[in-house]
Each structure stands twice: as structure tokens, then as C-alpha cells.
Amino acid sequence: ESVILPFNTGEDFNRSPTQTAMRWCVDFRTLPLSEVQSRWPNICRFIELHVRPEREKNASGRTREIWWQHERPRPELYVQARRKQRVLCRALVTSVWAFAFVSPQQVFANKLTVFLLDGWHEYAVLQSAFHEQWAWASTMKSDLNYSHSDCFQTFPFPVGVLRSNIDHPTLSPVGRTHHEYRARLMIELGEGLTALYRRFCDALEVADSINTLRNLQMEMDRAVAAAYGWTDLELGHGFHETRQGLRFTISEPARREVLLRLLKLNHERYAEEVRQGLHGKKGGAGRVASGGKKAAGGSKGATKKPDATGSKKGPSLFGEDSDE
């Protein structure tokens, strides 16, 4: 039980009604070979027989020599993640906009983005149309390849939301209600996130359960707008044409206005951090508030304290990858 763990992939995450891994893997973490051979001799022999021959063909010296460990184990991710009851995830490449909480007691594949966040208020913002429009603006493709540097680090959260341990008076209740209702609905339908959001964006789908999910999304988006202080925004939810086809989302004028306001907020925060000396001349290091990395051709200066994984080389503190 300590070294054979669920191995969750982006496909499993989006397909399973409970975002549950369909496979298992051996995870010796970064333990030395002597300890592995002593504590789990049978498993170690299995790995030596079935894994080591392939690893020895690899050009990387580390991959060949440390054949009993994952190629990129990212211990810093798992140390922090497993201190939590849950972490927030999303598939790295997907056409649907869907985040969900999962247990950190598993191994995450390289097609999952893992955020070291566990608040309902943080979920509400990331699942909102505001973060969705910000992320889609970073690509011209029909499938979003979620990049932590382009989509997450540059995104200006409402003040006091990111990494806050205190529930937000409006965001936390709507985030929890949305997540819990959606979780129950997927189990009832026997469908995962991809299938559910295809229904969600199908104008011919008029089931009461799907309409309820749409209403909860609208309520959550309005709560996020209020958290920014943008109560004047007319979001115009409905079925609208987008670059990704017909979607249930906010209107095109609202999408343009949301992007303009978020970009303005991003630049204001970045400028304030420059005044505070948080960005060095060569992109120096320092603590950076949410949205502190300038978007739209801005400086590639300091990035804020990691909250999610995203390295293409394996799971890092910015939670995208974990290699077999």
C-alpha cells in the first residue's frame, strides 16, 4: 500500500465520473536501491525484470542509473500535496473547461495539471468564465494546452482569494455547491467531465439536471464578478459561438470586456510590484502577488511562489507532470 498507488492520467481524470485513476503504478519515490531491495524485494525484482531493460536504452544517464525510480519524481510536489486532504486538478490538454478536487494520495501523470490549492473560493474562480476566457486567449487552437506560465501565473485573482485559508463569504458557498452538485450528477449519469460538459454546451440538451448545472455556473460567475467589484458587467450567459464552436458561456461582448479588465488589472499589479522592487532587471526573484507576471508580451520577470505544477519534464511544484 505504501509503494503501489493509483496512477491518474488526464484521460482518466476526464473520463471517470469520480476522476478516479484506472491504473496503478509502483512508486518508490526517491528511496535508495538498498532500502527498496530490503523492504520490497519482490516488487523490486519485478521492476528490475520489466522496467530496467527499457530504462537502460535511454540516453539520459540518470534514467539508466536510477531505474527503480520514476524518471522525474518531483518530490517537492508530493511533499506539499500530501499535506493536504485534496488538491485541485485539470487535464492538461482538453476541449472542456473543468477543474475538480482529487486526493493527493496518488501519482499524477504528465497530462494532469495539479494545483496545490484546496479552497472552494479558489475553485470558484478557476472554474469561472473569467479564468476560462483568460486561458483561451493564450491559444489559437480548439483544444487548450493549459500552461501554468501563460494561464495561471499571469492571471490576476480577486484580492485576498489565492492561497487564503479563510473562506470567502460568497465565493466559497457557490464553489462548494457547484462542485458537489456536479460530482453527484456525474455519478448519477455515469459520465465523466468530458461527456458532462458536452451536454452542458449542447443547446438541444434541456434536461433539468443540466439546466441546474448551467444555473449554478451563472451564479458562480456572477459571484466572481462581484469579488472583483465588477457588478456593472452584463455577462449575458447563453449559447454563443466561440472559436471552439457553440458553447454555453458568457456573451462575446462580455468576453471582450472581461479580457480587457483582467489585462488592465494584470498590468496594474505588475507595475505596483515593479515599484516595490519585486522584479529585478533580469527577471529577478522575489515574492510576487497573484497576477504578478505580466501578460500579453510583458516582462518575463519574477514569478510568484509556486501553487500549481506545470513543467513539461515532470510534475513540478506547478503540477503538470509526473513520468512513469
Can you describe what's shown?
By secondary structure, this protein is an alpha+beta fold. Helix content is about 40%, strand content about 10%. The strands form 4 sheets. The chain has a 3-stranded mixed beta sheet. The chain has a 3-stranded antiparallel beta sheet with strand order 5-3-7. The protein has a two-stranded antiparallel ribbon with strand order 4-8. A hairpin with a 2-residue loop joins strand 9 and strand 10. The two termini are about 20 Å apart. Mean pLDDT is about 85; it is low at about 285-290 and about 295-324.
Query: What value does the Rg take, in angstroms?
Result: 21 Å
What is the end-to-end distance? 18 Å
Low-confidence stretches: 283-289, 297-324
Average pLDDT: 87
* Strand element count: 10
For the biggest β-sheet, the strand order reads 2-1-6
Biggest sheet, in brief?
Answer: 3 strands, mixed
Q: What are the secondary-structure elements, in order, as H or E?
A: EHEHHHHHEEEEEHHEHHHHEEH
Computed structural class: alpha+beta
Residues in helix, %: 40-55%
